[in-house]
Amino acid sequence: MRESRVLRKLREGEAASCFKVNLGDGQASEIASISGFDCLWIDREHLAQDWSVLASQIWSAKAHNTDVMVRVPRGSYSDYIKPLEMDATGIMVPHIMSLDDARKVVEMTRFHPIGKRAIDGGSADGAYTNMDFTSYLKQSNEQKFIVLQIEDPEPLDELEEIAALEGYDMLFFGPGDFSQAIGAPGEWNHPKLVETRKRVAEVARKHGKFAATSGSIDMLPEFRSLGYQFVSIGADVVGLSLYCKQLQEKFHQTK
Predict the structure, then answer these.
(1) Is the pTM of this model over 0.90?
(2) Distances from the Cα of 74 to the Cαs of 29, 95, 166, in angstroms?
């Protein structure tokens, strides 16, 4: 099984870069991979690309040794494990609301002895049955990462217990939905948001998990100082939009 580039870096104490791909196309993923990002974030919570598109995005990233993290929609166990079986390197489960919620995610996405993930082995992650069965289970638990997204006030009362739970790798603080959930949408410097962003990193590191978040590249020094090792720092739609606007502005300024 391919070694996770992200996990290798994080386990060695380094930082890992991530880039969000919203465009439903394998070429967009390949361009981002060629640029050198450690990980691509493909979103199935909000975007509507089908499984064949996701497969092309994973293939194009793997060709350049780039990890793929799929944010899954909240649903059944099959919604969680299909991206892993397609050989995505990790999944992120949004809106974790409690310790029990987090525990169920681990149970559904990890193989024995950690969890009770449904087993197939005939898909891409198991080399289409060409991996030794026992090695497949062991390497999947070691090289596929599970990310729990904290983006609501509800889980904060059990945050220590969630952080201490065995079987997952990262706590990801989601500032967008969190700002809305506390009644301050888009107020990135709201005291409650700032406090929670700091606390998520602290408890993650305290309990041996990696701290992850998203934000402007200009915020990266602050995120790193708080202990965040995995940061999503941009998105294809943002870059394309800015580029198009810049071209239009220059076009209309030219006489």
Answers:
(1) yes
(2) 24, 8, 21
